[in-house]
Design a protein that fits this description.
The protein is α+β, with helices and mostly antiparallel strands and 392 residues long. It has 11 helices and 13 strands. It has 2 domains: 220 residues, no CATH class; 145 residues, no CATH class. The strands form 3 sheets. Strands 1, 2, 5, 6, 7, 9 and 10 form a 7-stranded mixed β-sheet that branches. Strand 12 and strand 13 form a beta hairpin. It starts with a helix and ends in an 8-residue tail after the last helix. The N terminus is likely disordered.
Length: 392
């Protein structure tokens, strides 16, 4: 009887192990190019009146430096002198990747001015100019290709005011061109744009993902004494997962809303450093559990911090109340959809593998150690402006 059971379960466990290893290899390949790379966004503010389009384009200096090597002396800091030295190159690079057309005719760009501004996540180059169209603006087409050749994850968050209407759009590889006018810019299209952005943000927000992994890894295990043991039933594991995911969702949704509407302000350097510390704490709790049974409390407390990180995407867009609410709902639902997709992919694998020594020693123990180490490096980089990991 015993021999038959071993023969039956052995191949199943081997298949599950191979599937888990293949999935983890894909995950590592996915994450590796961007280990130290924060989500790349620019903010494009357009105001159309008569035949004129007033443009303000905020682009992160860290992204421009990665594309143009602006840091001439290689000290890791961009001085005003270095920016001035490359001002023409910077403006040309950006403006060649932005086009404005009215009724199919190109609008003529006037002289641009370069300024520097500070956003929640660092210093930004601010390009300001006006574009003149040959006829009153009726159907404005915006073409956007910034960093398209170097960073497929980059997105441009557009805010357009045209004829007493506010339009929002997320521009990037999937939507490089958008047209705005009387028959465009529906609320549904704008909602879908921010829904997609939320999914993209959670899937490329590796600190958020590793925090979630750290909380999910023990969901299929039970702590007895100094050791982890497999839970006997699926029900207990699902209850634990639901509690953790719900607590994390409620918490980050709360601070995301407060920060997006300007009711809560925390400098990006502090919030991003705190997010890295939360990942360290969650991973170390798997190795030396201080919180064994109510990990949803940990998910809620640290989820409040993660919501501040999500808010950086929307907070600097400067949308009016109605448009901001629509963007917030779409973005938050996108974050949840992306998060649930991750849970649906990995939790079944965790459950199938839970009884194996490979899961307890390699996935749980070694995996948590690796997460804690990586997050500690993130914390040092963010808190002390250092660089240990390669930037994509």
């Amino acid at each position: 009887m015993t021999a038959v059971a071993t023969t039956h379960t052995g191949p199943q466990r081997l298949i599950a192990r191979r599937a888990f290893q293949a999935t983890m290899v894909l995950l590592v390949c996915w994450c590796a190019p961007a280990l130290a790379h924060k989500s790349s966004d620019s903010f494009l503010h357009l105001t159309a009146h008569g035949t004129t389009v007033s443009v303000q384009w905020d682009i992160a200096l860290r992204d421009l430096d990665a594309a143009l090597a602006l840091d001439t002396n290689g000290d890791g800091l961009l001085s005003w002198g270095e920016i001035r030295q490359h001002e023409s190159q910077l403006s040309t690079y950006a403006l060649q990747r932005l086009s404005l057309l009215n009724d199919g005719n190109a609008c003529t760009r006037g002289k641009d001015e370069l300024l520097i501004d500070t956003h929640s996540d660092g210093a930004y180059a601010v390009l300001q100019f006006e574009a003149q169209c040959s006829t009153p603006i009726h159907a404005l087409q915006v073409g956007y290709r910034l960093f398209a050749d170097t960073d497929a994850g980059h997105r441009g968050l557009l805010n357009l005011r045209l004829a007493d209407h506010t339009y929002t759009q997320v521009l990037g590889p999937d939507t490089p061109v958008a047209t705005f006018g009387a028959q465009s810019g529906s609320a549904w299209r704008q909602f879908l744009g921010f829904l997609h952005t939320g999914i993209h943000h959670i899937w490329t927000g590796f600190d958020h993902l590793l925090f979630l992994f750290s909380l999910l890894l023990p969901a299929v295990l039970l702590r007895r004494g100094q050791h982890w043991e497999a839970k006997s039933g699926l029900g207990d594991s699902l209850v634990d997962v639901v509690r953790v995911v719900t607590a994390f969702t409620v918490a980050h949704s709360l601070t995301l809303a407060l920060a997006t509407f300007g009711l809560l302000r925390v400098p990006s350097r502090i919030s991003e450093s705190a997010i890295a510390l939360s990942v360290v704490a969650a991973a170390l709790n798997n190795l030396w559990p201080l919180v064994k049974h109510r990990r949803w409390v940990v998910a809620f407390c640290f989820g409040l911090v993660h919501g501040l990180g999500f808010a950086n995407v929307l907070g600097d867009l400067g949308l009016p109340g109605g448009a901001l609410a629509l963007a917030l709902v779409g973005f938050n639902l996108g974050v949840e959809a992306g998060q649930l997709a991750i849970v649906a992919l990995f939790v079944p694998l965790f459950y199938v593998m839970r009884s194996t020594l490979f899961y307890r020693r390699v996935v749980m123990t070694a995996g948590s150690m690796g997460i804690a180490l990586l997050a500690a490096l993130w914390f040092a980089e963010r808190a002390f402006n250092l660089q240990f990991l390669p930037v994509h």
